[in-house]
Design brief:
alpha+beta; Rhopdopsin 7-helix transmembrane proteins; Beta-Lactamase; five-stranded antiparallel beta sheet; five-stranded mixed beta sheet; 21 helices; rod-shaped
Amino acid sequence: MSWSYSYNTDIWPAIITLAAVIYFGSYSWQRRNVAASRPFMAACCLTGFWTLGVILELMAVDFSTKVFWVKYQGFWPLPTVATVACFILHYAGLGKWLTRRTYALLFLFPLLSVLMVVTNNFHHLIWAGFQMNGSVVASPGKLFWVFNSYIYLLGLFNFTILVRLAIHSPGHRLPVAIILSGQVFGRIGYTLGELGMIGPAETMLLSVGTVSVAYGLVLLRFHALDPIAAARRAVQKQMNQGLLTIDLQERIIDVNPMASAMLGIPEKSLRGKPLAEVMPMEMEILQLENRKSEPIEIMLGRNDSSRQYDLNITKLKGRQNEMIGYLLLLQDVTEQRKAQNQIIEQRKMMAKLQERENLARELHDGIGQILGYVSIQVQTALKWMQKGNADKAGSILERIAEVAKDAHTDIRESILALRTGSEKKKAFIPNLKSSLDRFQTNFGIRTELWISPGFGENTLDPAVESNVLRVIQEALTNSRKHSSAKNIKVWVELDTSKALITLADDGQGFDTNQPGGCEGSHFGLVFMRERIAQIGGALTIDSVPGGGTVLKLSVPVREEEVKRNESASGR
């Protein structure tokens, strides 16, 4: 052999193929931490050595040199297809099948073929001879097609694995079709080359070049070795939300394990089923094309096993912004709704307990003390009657009658106040007007009400309205009982973030600096302060003996009202 080489244009298809193989080999090397990239990288290396042999065969001048490179090329086909089969198993998610025994079975025949190629000069079972007919043509030996049948056998194996993947994972159907097309063209090109029907450059272009293009599309367009795609699949399997992919015919084409568990149907059985069969809901909900992005709440399951879910529907768009399907996300909110309902019930119970406490305080501070007073005075009157002093006994009984009359009036006011608090349909201002009108009619004390512009029905929260009304009613009672007032004026004003309510009477007043003067003389003042504090407000009292009393309340308004007022003041 002279080992002489000469350039000719026939090598370019093989050079282009080698460049593609080197590129995809480096691409897989950069992603070598992904399990599927390692066998693919090995396949690229083997194919690169194979392609290099074709280039050197075409450039060789001497016939014996060409024969050498033809034999060299015989090392690589079987190890290459075995390595590609390992990649196919990883790509299909069956990498766990690749045990030591599997590797031994896959590579036993390729290793035997390499051994037979090396020793062919002794037995001529692979090639019987070589002749020159434009290019080197090898005459196959007795075992040539026996060993090469392994290439087609692994092709059937790959076909089975990839079809299985396409059936169970509709999202892989297009890349699987591309891989299978490349493998079919590659084996056709290899067969035509071995039969001598095309030259070595054309053989390499068809058998390796087309396969490289197919795998290139799968790698670059569908990110077969991209860890991001693998991470997405892992997240879908691990996520606590149910995920369903729906086509335009509203059939389920993909589903994650959590959705299968939520629906109580195996994943295999769900794929291909119409959505209406597995999620029996109202027709307007199932009209996915017209659904908005807001989540809807649905119930799945029967009787005691039914659970509540938030259903989010997302429209899936293609590259041209065309509709290609829908994504349904199911979030189990059963426990969350139970917790919310429990909190609501607890708040209702706390409100009831708080109201009972308020009632108990009012009864103790008002009626309780009156009854205690009546009990002591009755005992005193009995003693005077036993001593025969009817005048003193009668005087005490007259005072008891007056106190009882006052107690009856207080009870009526309390009942009216409770009824006012329960009138949820009537707004704050109408309720306040009704209270003032009743007070003026019952006790002959003139009342006036002034309301500032901008104070509307939604200025105060219901809880604030109720407490403010009770405080105003208590203040009216105090003016009637303790100050001998003839006139009472009420102002309701609106500030940016608070409401100001002022009550002023023309009564006799009291000394606010006297220790215990306010709370000690007027039991309701303690109650009033506590109510205002509960709603985040403030209460102040200005009074001097003989100069009347002014009570001022400052309470918060709704957040929406605050924003509206701030916006108005900004303009």
